[in-house]
Amino acid sequence: MEERSFPTRQGVLAAARRIDAWVTRTPLLPLEWQGRRLWAKAECLQQGGAFKLRGATNRLLQLTEEERGRGVVAFSSGNHARGVAIAARRLGIAATIVMPADAPAVKRAMTAAEGAHIIAYDRSTEDRIAIARRISEETGAIVVPSFDDIHIIDGQGTVAVEIAEQLGAEPPAVVVPCGGGGLSAGIALALPGSRVTPVEPGGWDDMARSLEQGEIVGIAPDAPPTRCDALQTPLVSPLTYGVLAERGARGLAVTEEEVADAMRFAFDRLRLVVEPGGAAALAAVLGGKVDAPEGTVVVLSGGNVDPELYASVIAGR
Amino acid sequence: MEERSFPTRQGVLAAARRIDAWVTRTPLLPLEWQGRRLWAKAECLQQGGAFKLRGATNRLLQLTEEERGRGVVAFSSGNHARGVAIAARRLGIAATIVMPADAPAVKRAMTAAEGAHIIAYDRSTEDRIAIARRISEETGAIVVPSFDDIHIIDGQGTVAVEIAEQLGAEPPAVVVPCGGGGLSAGIALALPGSRVTPVEPGGWDDMARSLEQGEIVGIAPDAPPTRCDALQTPLVSPLTYGVLAERGARGLAVTEEEVADAMRFAFDRLRLVVEPGGAAALAAVLGGKVDAPEGTVVVLSGGNVDPELYASVIAGR
Fold first, then answer.
1. Which residue among A42, A270, A310 places its CB closest to the CB of B314?
2. How close is the nearest chain B Cα to the Cα of A315, in Å?
3. Which of A159, A198, A252, A273 is the most buried (most CB within 10 A)?
4. Do A173 and A292 touch, CB atoms closer than 8 A?
5. pLDDT tens digits for A145-195?
């Protein structure tokens, strides 16, 4: 494994070459909105249903033979879990995933279907990082963080390498759902000329507030419930925050109703199944919360949603 | 307009060049099934939500200036209607669409949203072809058939030009939803080395029975109801039948429950919204009704489905 302290544009470009044969080149679909031609980057069509396979594959491909033999352990509400599980299965690596007990059933089932060993924890009373560390200490398994890792960030940024290739240019702006910030930071590195706007659910907008205040701040202890399970990250990382702060990025928050509207728009107009967290950036654009000039790219980051919830959102207008 | 009596492979290749800037190059997504790697051609992501924009664009681009001024008239249960309406709006052509009164509300609304004039008829008592002819005689508008037209068939076949380019080779087999057979015939022309299997809903499998009997036969008068509105074609055309018969193609029928299972599979595993008729080919593969060797392409031909119906199918397992 190379020695670097920060994720870099060169790291993202190298990751794009490394993982090319292991991931789907997801389509960039035209999105007409208020007379402008925008683009939707459909990462909900990625294998595993979210962009997470990119970072996980980039990380696991760089393990040594000895490290592969020790196995990997990850903590995740679902999409990173599934991405790590797929990459591990393909590379013949044993994977243990620490998931919250209230994770969507579909994410849990699909992670288990990849052959990963799942350990459930209580999101409100237990510390998933501590659980993963303990497993690592007991078994020697390599911890694969969901965003606080340069190779994970490099891998997620490959989304934007594809965007630039598909457009033949850097877009003026990219709007991105943001949990821990790995995807937003990776995209910012890959597209030095684009304005990158991370979007979070209301009350979970710690990246937006950190960028506003100039230092990392966590969510309030009374953060409201959100259907955007993929974006429920209590604290961002110096790595992801650092990239976005250096770029002068600004974040913003969307409401649950704006997210539901965006899921319905994706159903009606794009014929894509997008999960709540995956629709956050689209919600910001449709809600008029972010300037989206002609050519703006809206990332739809995932589509792993329970059918009952999806049906209720689609039928419930 | 060139003079030809039959659709041809050269016609399809010319159509692909002609419409290139007007349609989306839809993704070919990996589809793991029973240990084999198949491919899903996601025409539900086409502009207008179905492959129909291809044929409509190819036809309308070949109208003379004088013909464009007279306007166009089409009859369709929905997807062809929407495709013609989009192509007509872009080219500044007035469009009149004859639609069944029981067409899905989404298809009607989206066709109207493109500025087309819609005339409803009763599917059980009125003859849509006669209505369209009368409008054409009264107004001079050019009739744009939904499948019985060489330029429409040429245009639909461009789906397969993309498939061959995306794979870098012809696939061993393509499984295709079939209404009037325009898409199936166009694909067969574009891929001379592939086995093409048209799939219809049970009771509406007149193409399958025609190919079996060696002559065109219509549906029985007591054909059962089907949710596959896009595939409810009472009689195929000598043009589409002729291409498939010459190839020795064989068709097959799927049940309503197999179609619902395929819609759920597309939701769970592909994150694509597929309408009932658009899921017929996938239903045949998942139901084990057609041999699908490694590399088989399954066409998902459309995604225009009412939200209430979609929600009930997705939640109703």
1. A310
2. 5
3. A198
4. yes
5. 999 999 999 999 999 999 999 999 999 999 999 999 999 999 999 999 999
